[in-house]
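To close the section, here is one more complete example, presented without commentary so you can practise reading it yourself. The ligand is pyridoxal-5'-phosphate.
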Amino acid sequence: MLATAPIQFPGEPESNSERARVARGEPVAQRTFTPTQAVLARSAGAYHWTPEGRKLVDFSSGVLVANLGHNPVDWWDRVWRIMGLNATAASDRYIPAAPLTSYNAISPLEGQAVERLIDNLRRQPGGQRMEQVFWAASGSEAIQKALWAAMRRVPGREMVLATRRGFHGKKGLANAVTGSESDPDRDPRVRFLRFPCDECADVTLRGKPIDLSPFRQELELLTQEFGDRIGTLITEPYLGGGGSYHPQPEYLQMLQQYCREHDIVLVLDEIQSCFGRTGPMYAFSHYGIEPDVVCLGKGLGNGIPVSAAVGRSDIFASLKYGEGSDTFSGHPLACAAVIATLDIFESTDILERGRQLASVLEAGLLRMKETGVVVRVRGEGAVWGIECAAVGNRPAEQIANDCVRACYLGDDAGRSIHLLGPLAGRVIRISPPLVLDVAEAQEYLDVMYRLLIQVRDAA
Ligand SMILES: Cc1ncc(COP(=O)(O)O)c(C=O)c1O
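Output:
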């Protein structure tokens, strides 16, 4: 049997045995590489614990999933109650709770979640086109459903423009609109256009005017070549997986204007940015645009697998009965999680907490440039990327991995930080739960600063 040797850390017997167990029993493709392969036995709020009981502050929110923190009591109480799981059992063997199925049947939770989500979206600046919810179970599936519908809206207008270096998922059409045209087996219906990166390479460029003329020219050329065959444009509010590039709002507004002028469906991928990551509930409000379809995932269910493409009903009407159905979409547990998550966003100061965290993160991460390990800092709200530099003979990619590893191992006082493996090779994602206390965020940013100095000195 072929298996890749698992990553192991001294002094972590239980974690090492878990790492070895999944290395034996799962293909390596199951996991994205990280230099830590952290084993997380329990999580609460902004913290994880390893099986050995070592505490790690979570600077990743899972993967931008646990915006409300991990396992909040009031959230679980609601999920439980909405599911009917707190009801007195009618018999001692089964609980008369919501069914754990939505296929060929409708649970009232589904309609409730639809209405709540649409209501929430429509109350935000830019949410006025939100009419129907197309449920899915992962981000890439929501993207795929949005594209299926948009590409079929008008016969002959099946071509899609996507922004280069974007990340929309690994499956099917979501993969087809990810990255760039470099893959020779590219879906011929997809064409790419440039997303500003140099123009927003560092947060210090925020607010600097952007010259939109090269982007307009590129669109013009594509229109000349493909004309009416282009029916859809998909982009992200900021490049997430592509390396954390947060554009000037004028760029996205220009794309929207182009879409409106040519009757093109604008699909905005907010799988990662939804539910408070960039400051407001949705990034489209912050960027001053009004998408035709918005794809939501990750934080939508605060950790329960659920995603959705939400948007204009005339677009979704291009698909017939069953063309977008599957076993788990619209699942009652997913709907209960969406309702509970909306309840908390709508009844607490969680967005304000995220905004307070934002300024602490920005200052703390900018300071990391002093270490020489970080060359650029990009982000907004509670979603940041720090770009590592080469140090000595060690390339930036290795330095980024060294930093992730050093943060996992922590300082002499036992303070450790859980980070994701680097984005685009050398960018470390910082995206804690919005509930991370600002004083604790400051403390751990200081810890990270000192750990980065150690990485530099060891290079
Ligand atoms: C912007 C964006 N779109 C789509 C996806 C794909 O989501 P999933 O991994 O749930 O398929 C991701 C995942 O990271 C993402 O960040």
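Once you have examined the tokens, check your reading against these statements. The longest strand covers residues 374-380. The two ends are 37 Å apart (CA to CA).
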